[in-house]
Amino acid sequence: MVAKLILLTFLLVGGSLGYNVFPDLITNWNEVPSWLMHPVVGMVLGAGVFYIVSFYAVKPIEKGIVKIEQIFSELSIAYLMFGSIGAIVGLILALLISFPLNALNMLIISDVIPFILTMALAYIGFQLGTSRREEIRRLFQPKTVKQENSDVLDRKDGESFRKYKVLDTSTIIDGRILDVVRTGFLEGVLVISHYVLKELQYIADSSDSLKRVRGRRGLDILNALQKEKGITLEMDDSDIPESEDVDLKLVHLAKRLDGMIITNDFNLNKVAEFQNVSVLNINELANAVKPVVIPGEEMRVMIVKNGTERNQGVAYLDDGTMIVVEEGKFHMNEMLDVVVTSSLQTNAGRMIFAKMTTDQKSLDSRKDSDG
Q1: By the 8 A CB rule, do 341 and 295 touch?
Q2: What is the mean pLDDT of residues 141-168?
Q3: Helices (H), the chain
Q4: Cα–Cα distance for residue pair 13/54, rounded to 1 Å
Q5: What is the model's pLDDT at position 219?
Q6: Range name among 73-82, 99-108, 340-349, 356-365 with the lowest pLDDT average
Q7: Cα separation of 26 and 46, whole Å?
Q8: In the 8-state DSSP scheme, what is residue 179?
Q9: Would the CA dihedral through 64, 70, 73, 75 be positive or negative?
């Protein structure tokens, strides 16, 4: 579609130039046929020449347009809107200043300086509009009694701040978002799409008992979030026809709101990042706040199952971190004192490797005797 528009533009420009310029170019030629002087002939010739040129120019222009689209897609709507308003104000000021300069009829002052003023004031207006947009927005907001009497300055939103956080289905069913909200680490507005609500209702009405329990748990979490005083929960009923998949609908919704997605779905995380949408991943947050263990640290755990390798036993910390204990297979359902030997960070979480304290002590005593 873009290539066709570029081609049409070249045809119109070539035809217009040929219609207006070509007859004047060949007026001084000797023995020029009269039919060649007709503007319509010039229009056809100009359109033909520019049509041939367009074959070499369409690809570079199309690549440039794609790069510009990528740059603009990474900017927020507010940034572009206030920047455009500032640029328009700058252009109006430049026009007003140019009137008296043009009246002077001086070569440089009347021709060059207005052009420089136009470019400079448009740029300054754009910069002022983008850098002071929060102050401009507050000028047009009705002042409440609380705002007039308050001496506390509002926090200025940074470029990385996103007011709207779109929740996906997996995060709601997981339930940990409620604990995060209660701690006060999230600010802004939580957005629930009606597509997510329909998916939760479908899961809650499933014939599978496990799915039914998960769906009802998700609805309970939504009701609990709605009652929390520290956060605002909003429903979004807008139609998103760009995609049939619910995850992709959430990506388009986050783009539309200039917000971010809260999820624990690895695939949705990657798709959102590819679409330049910010993501808050609950699993990454959980892994980040888990206590760090170092080799040589001792702890007391209970072996609950066999490991994948020979003679290994598996235990878990209170936060769900897996601990693989050497020779733990022979101490099933027993509390053991273990010492950490190493740890491994994976996409699924942190895994700790340990051995029983008695084995470590015997190894240390053997080293002492050898020494």
Answers
A1: yes
A2: 59
A3: 2-25, 39-73, 77-103, 107-131, 133-139, 145-149, 169-174, 176-183, 194-204, 209-227, 246-257, 266-274, 282-289, 357-370
A4: 11
A5: 92
A6: 356-365
A7: 13
A8: H
A9: negative
Name every residue whose Cβ is closer than 8 Å to that of residue 47 and which is 6 or more positions away in sequence: 11, 14, 15, 18
The CA distances from residue 195 to 70, 240, 248, 255, 256, in Å, are: 28, 9, 11, 16, 15
Amino acid in position 195: Y
What's the order of all strands across the beta sheet hosting 278-281? 232-236, 189-193, 164-167, 260-263, 278-281
DSSP 338-361: EEEEEEEEETTEEEEEEEEHHHHH
Is the pTM of the predicted complex or chain greater than 0.70?
no
Domain residue spans of the chain? 2-129, 164-288, 293-370
Tokens (6 digits) for 181: 């909200």
> Which sign, positive or negative, has the C-alpha torsion 116, 118, 123, 124?
positive
Q: What DSSP character marks residue 149?
A: H
Q: Which string of DSSP letters, residue by residue, matches 191-239?
A: EEEHHHHHHHHHHHT-SSHHHHHHHHHHHHHHHHHHH-SSSEEEEE---
Give whichever of 21-35, 136-150, 196-210 has the largest mean pLDDT: 196-210
Q: Which two tokens stand for residue 222?
A: 């939504």
Same CATH topology for 164-288 and 293-370: the answer is: no
Phi first, then psi, for residue 192 (nearest 5°) are -110, 115
- Average per-residue pLDDT for the chain: 81
| Domain 293-370: assigned CATH number | 2.40.50.140
Residue 46 in tokens: 């100009």
Indicate the CATH number of 164-288 among 3.30.40.10, 3.40.50.1010, 3.40.50.620, 3.40.50.1970.
Answer: 3.40.50.1010
